[in-house]
Amino acid sequence: MKISTKGRYALRTMLDLATQDKGRLVPLKDVAYRQNITIKYLEQVMNLLSKAGYVRSVRGAGGGYRLAKDPSEYTVGDILRVAEGSLAPIACLEDDVNQCPRASECLTLPFWMGLAEVINNYVDSVTLEDLAQNTVKGNFSI
């Protein structure tokens, strides 16, 4: 599995907002500067996050962005799924019901299902608050 630039930037942006929100809106240009992301690209990322209801925005002078909820209420998985879509390691696991005609005879399917479970459990166990406080544990097992 490879996370795209959009997914990485979405996570970095949400983390930036989590750490910079001091009760006021955070200007997009400030996020772009700190994260070394072009404003044009950051606008695309913010559009995704805004449509998902993850950020609130105010236009105009004094405007900017802030998280819609507390950082503890966002998991890395939530954010990556907004930017990336499914995190399934193979296409046949992207839907709730496996549509692959070979599913019943596929000897590798249990492996892929296990990998998907490990990925989802891990990304869903880490919150923005964990990242902001640098409390992410690298202790996981397959």
What are the salient characteristics of this protein?
single chain, 142 residues, mainly alpha, two-stranded antiparallel sheet, 6 helices, 2 strands, elongated
Descriptive notes:
By secondary structure, the protein is mostly helical. 46% of the residues lie in helices and 6% in strands. The chain is built from 6 helices and 2 strands; from the N terminus they run αααββααα. The protein has helices spanning 5-20, 28-35, 39-51, 76-84, 109-123, 128-132; strands spanning 55-58, 64-67. A two-stranded antiparallel sheet has the order 1-2. It is elongated, with a radius of gyration of 17 Å. The mean pLDDT is 91.
- What Rg, in angstroms, do the CA atoms define? 17 Å
* Shape by Cα distribution: elongated
**Sheet bearing the most strands, described?**
2 strands, antiparallel
Number of strands: 2
Estimated structural class: mainly alpha
Which strands sit side by side, in order, in the main sheet? 1-2
- The overall pLDDT average reads 91
Q: Quote the distance from N terminus to C terminus.
A: 15 Å
Write the topology of this structure.
Elements: H1 5-20, H2 28-35, H3 39-51, E1 55-58, E2 64-67, H4 76-84, H5 109-123, H6 128-132
Antiparallel strand pairs: 1-2
Helix pairs in contact: 1-3, 1-4
